[in-house]
Structures are given as C-alpha cells and as structure tokens.
Amino acid sequence: MQALAEETGGRALIVVDVQNDFCEGGSLAVEGGAEVAEALGAYVREHRDAYDRVVTTQDWHVDPGDHFSAAPDYAHSWPPHCVVGTGGADLHPGLDAGHGGGFVEAVDVVVRKGEHAAAYSGFEATTPGGEPLDGYLRGAGIAAVDVAGIATDHCVRATALDAAAAGYSVRVLLPLCAGVAPASTERALSELREAGIELVGDLV
C-alpha cells in the first residue's frame, strides 16, 4: 500500500482499540476486527516513516459503572469488556501476525481510557504518565491525525470528531476500520463528513 502522507511533519496515526474483546472471539466482537488488526499491522510496518507519532488507544476498564450491564442496550450500556487484567484488554495479536512483527516497536505511546467511567474517544485517554492525548500530540508538534481501528461507529467516530473539534486536520482510513452495524456506521460516516473530516477509502 502506498503511504498516504506525502510529508511526515506534524502527522500522527491513532490506532483505536484494536483489542481482543473487540475482535472475533471477544466479549464484544466486531465482525472484521481480526482482519483490520492484520491490515493495520501491515500498514504500520510499511509506512511508519509517514508519521511523526504512532499512538494506540486501549479501553481499560476497572469499574466503569453503568457502562457495563447484564442486560445491555448496546448504545449506552454493554457487556463487560476490556477489563484490566484479562486477555480481552490486550492488543490483538493480529497486529503483529503474518508480517514479521514490529507493530509494538513502532508505537510511540499507548494511551488508555475508561477505568472508572464510559470513554469512547481517544481524547479521553491518558499516557502512562497521566498526560491527556491532546497534550501529548501538541507537545510533539502534531497538527494532523489519521484515525483507524475499532469500531467505526463508536470509538473511531468519537476520536475523529474530538480531534477535529480540537483543531487537528483529520482523516479516517476506512479500509483499516471495522464497524458494528451497517446502519450505525453509515450514520457515523455522515457525521464525520459534516464535521469536515476526510474519509479515505483507498490506500493503494
């Protein structure tokens, strides 16, 4: 695949929530999640030099209150997922599978969100040192972000919208995303377009 960014200055890639629980076999699986994991791993391996920073986000739940439910509505409440200390919270191994590894080494920082409350956007996440994602990116001189990962209609959507609201130039890399459902994904894409976010459908 051809790198999207002609210039590397000031651009970051945000890989959103590519975790075991959001891929096939997980507690809140999104169809196509494992395929996205492998595609993202390959993309990062091939095009790491196109980005000044690569960031990955993780849902990281300890006790998120009514975000978890035994009778979830799949809009505001969900089955337990990405619980700290479980394998479901780990990054999906497909990110490193089939192309010689290298994804973890390519990531500059992992930011985590949602320990004690619902959190969808990567801009609600913090670095291991407690710095918000926005502060981390601004400190690195980032002005533009590419967003990819899981799920298009939830955490990818929220991350991209928050990035645009914060003043970043934003692209969503659709071939490197997976959505929960067609109808909600289409609604999310319409909302992203209306926010002035570029939707990239072809990475070749």
TrEMBL record:
Xref: SUPFAM superfamilies: Isochorismatase-like hydrolases
Keyword Metal-binding: yes
EC identifiers of the protein: 3.5.1.19
Residue span(s) of domain Isochorismatase-like: 12-199
Pathway entry: Cofactor biosynthesis; nicotinate biosynthesis; nicotinate from nicotinamide: step 1/1
Transmembrane feature ranges: none
Top-level taxonomic group: Bacteria
Keyword terms of this UniProt record: Hydrolase, Metal-binding, Pyridine nucleotide biosynthesis
InterPro entries on file: Isochorismatase-like_dom, Isochorismatase-like_sf, Isochorismatase_Nicotinamidase
Name of the top EC class for this enzyme: hydrolase
Assigned protein family: Belongs to the isochorismatase family.
The protein's name in its UniProt record: nicotinamidase
Provenance organism: Motilibacter deserti
